[in-house]
Design goal:
Layout lengths: L1 H11 L13 H134 L2 H22 L1
Helix pairs in contact: 1-2
Length: about 180
Amino acid sequence: MKNVTDSFVSLGHWPSAGSFGFNTDILATNLINLSVVLGVLIFFGKGVLSDLLDNRKQRILNTIRNSEELREGAIEQLEKARDRLRKVEIEADEFRVNGYSEIEREKLNLIDSTYKTLEQLENYKNETINFEQQKASNQVRQRVFQQALQGALGTLNSCLNNELHLRTISANIGILAAMKQITD
């Protein structure tokens, strides 16, 4: 340390002989050179360094502001998406409920129409049975009537003579003609 102070002291006392020499003390000369370079750098580089730091600070602040704006925009979009999701879920629930009620309504309508169809088929069946019973009854009556008529004709033919037979036929023809006039 004594060498350092000696080198500063020796700067003030230069010999007037005008000789130029080298200081061989490495530590003393390096410290002087470094202090001079640092002083020049600080004096001239202070503005440049502060400008660089200010620019860097502004870029960082701008990046933070942009990030905050993007974050706020993302939060808004997220809220909008959540609102849309809630609305869609509500609509889906309404469609589901309406769909279920519509299905139930269609099911009841189908059951009602099936019962009505079955009722109509039952009515048609009963009408067909009644018609077939009447038809069979009419056929049985016709056969019974024909057999009775044939039996009566057979009895009449064996019991009647020709004159009585002709009067009976004429009377029956008159009855049939009167029946024909009534039906017309």
